Amino acid sequence: MSNKTIYSAAVTLVEPIERGSGDKKQEITSVKIRKPNSGELRGLKIAQIMQMDVDTMIVLLPRVTEPTLNEADIVTLDPSDFTDLSVEVVNFFDNTAKSQVG
Question: What pTM was computed for the model?
């Protein structure tokens, strides 16, 4: 069994996330989703993940994003960006999508 980290394709954000200010201002324009491990699913219901339940995704996305998005980042995402990130998470649970993830 491999310990290789599996990522989805990077999601390009419609509305970039801005962090910080002045010289330390950072703009996040794309986010990668890492395949969650069992520990990262702790306290969550897989059925709610599969339904892309908003509250569930607000908890899960900070655990599996690169760069790491915090809850404040997630709740202020453009709805289409939130949906795109959520779809990438759900794809890890779909056996047909496994051959497409790299």
Answer: 0.85
- For residue range 24-51, what is the model confidence (pLDDT) as tens digits? 889 999 999 999 999 999 999 999 999 9
Q: What is the pLDDT of residues 75-101, one digit of tens each?
A: 999 999 999 999 999 999 886 544 454
Q: For residue 29, give the 3-state DSSP assignment.
A: strand
Length of the chain: 102
Q: What angle do CA 22, 61, 34 make, to 5 degrees?
A: 100
Distance CA 74, CA 92 (A): 19
